[in-house]
Design brief:
Layout lengths: L3 H17 L14 H4 L49 H21 L1 H4 L4 H13 L18 H21 L4 H19 L8 H26 L4 H11 L1 H8 L6
Length: 256
């Protein structure tokens, strides 16, 4: 064979390979990219927008993501807190009790509680703010303010418990209800009664303290009535423990 022909064939093969581009080497079967990897974005692709909405919780998982993977979403709303104390019912209730009690005093003891002369009111109110509360240690026990002991022990005990108990039923804590009873007692002694008599040191101390004791006993019975299965029995116990409150709740003027 002519030696020129093999050289010509070799040169043609080299030119053909150069024109066709670099040869591609086939990947082995075990190194082929998986379908999951094929869905990943290229390294130089821009990140997704920050405000893009997350997919629904029941949407099928995209390729390459396990079916049970957690999808981040908006947090559920926080549970509402427990209701705080209600101020209006105990305040209005106490003012109504004070007004009715003061009116009864004017009927039972016209002197000095029915004296409507303004100069007498000014005199008594002046004594209330310029002199200490009345306390006569020479008198028998629980009569140190010159009132009969049943009025001081029973009457003021019930008055204090009504103020304290109403605050507790309206979701006041025990210390807050005690403070409410102390404030109510001072309003009674220096506001409602001071136009007729001097404030009593015994009443200022005994009324809220007796109110705490009797009020907590009433509150325990009131809460025990809530667990009764019989509606008539529950209503009866609540009416005995809190008669004024049951009336107020029955006519819709109090929510606690």
């Amino acid at each position: 064979m002519d030696p020129i022909r093999p050289c010509t064939a070799a040169a043609l093969a080299v030119l053909s390979a150069a024109c066709a581009g670099p040869a591609r080497t086939a990947l082995p079967a075990d190194s082929a990219p998986s379908p999951a990897d094929s869905t990943l974005p290229p390294p130089d692709s821009p990140p997704p927008p920050a405000d893009s909405a997350p997919p629904p919780a029941d949407a099928p998982a995209p390729p390459g993501r396990p079916a049970g993977a957690h999808v981040a979403g908006p947090l559920p709303p926080a549970a509402p807190g427990s209701a705080g104390p209600s101020w209006a019912p105990p305040i209005l209730h106490s003012l109504a009790v004070f007004t009715v009690t003061r009116s009864v005093e004017a009927v039972l003891w016209p002197e000095p509680f029915a004296d409507l002369r303004l100069e007498r009111w000014a005199h008594h109110y002046g004594e209330a703010v310029t002199k200490p509360p009345l306390f006569d240690a020479s008198q028998p026990a629980f009569q140190w303010d010159h009132d009969p002991w049943p009025i001081n022990v029973v009457g003021h005990g019930l008055l204090g418990s009504e103020i304290y108990f109403r605050a507790r039923v309206c979701r006041f804590s025990a210390p807050a209800a005690l403070a409410f009873a102390v404030a109510g007692t001072h309003l009674w002694e220096y506001g409602y009664e001071a136009n007729g008599v001097r404030p009593s040191a015994l009443d200022l101390v005994y009324t809220p303290l007796a109110g705490v004791l009797l009020g907590e006993l009433r509150l325990a019975a009131f809460r025990a009535a809530e667990g009764m299965g019989s509606a008539p029995a529950r209503l009866l116990v609540r009416a005995l423990v809190d008669p004024l409150g049951e009336i107020e709740r029955g006519i819709g003027v109090s929510g606690c």
